[in-house]
Write a structure and sequence with these properties.
10 strands, alpha+beta, single chain, 5-stranded mixed sheet
């Protein structure tokens, strides 16, 4: 698991304490570079032998929501080392969203759409039809049920991952030959 969370909320304080035994503070400094819909650069401050990255809520409020690539870089003033890379989502500031805001993620929106189509199938019997030169074909119910199961599993996995992260769970894996 990386040092940077998978999601950072705009409009709330961001804080990450990062321990890098190979690149200890204060000999090494740390920076976080995010590129995506916006350009965000944070410089860490020493915290014992670790590093603290922080941005106040007043700063994150202006961060553009979306998917970003990130790099953590350590430097001793001469060498610059890429410590970690990954992807993070900047979530929109919920307090700045208007009434009617749809905060569902992609998986939830698609699952809801699939389930709505399945519900409407109870009143529609035909698979396809043609009127003059126009035709309409519907996705077979079996395919919809498979898609629904796939998206349900994906949503359940996201929920498990969030619960695990919230509980601070660590999984240790050992491989033997």
């Amino acid at each position: 698991m990386g040092s940077i969370p998978g999601e950072i909320g705009a409009g709330v304080t961001f804080r990450a304490e990062i321990e890098l035994p190979v690149y200890p503070a204060p000999e090494w400094s740390l920076s976080l570079i995010l590129r995506g819909p916006g350009q965000i650069d944070l410089t860490g401050t020493p915290s014992g032998t670790g590093h603290q990255l922080q941005a106040l809520a007043s700063t994150t409020a202006s961060w553009q929501p979306g998917r970003y690539r990130y790099e953590l870089r350590a430097t001793d003033g001469t060498d610059v080392v890429k410590v970690e890379t990954g992807e993070v989502v900047i979530a929109p500031d919920l307090s700045a969203q208007p009434a009617g805001y749809d905060g569902r993620n992609h998986v939830r929106r698609v699952l809801d759409a699939i389930e709505a189509v399945i519900e409407n199938r109870a009143t529609i019997d035909q698979q396809s039809y043609q009127i003059n030169n126009r035709s309409l074909s519907r996705t077979p119910l079996g395919d919809l049920l498979k898609l629904r199961d796939k998206y349900r599993a994906e949503l359940a996995a996201q929920k498990r991952a969030r619960r695990g992260a919230a509980l601070g769970r660590t999984y240790k894996v050992r491989f033997t030959c």
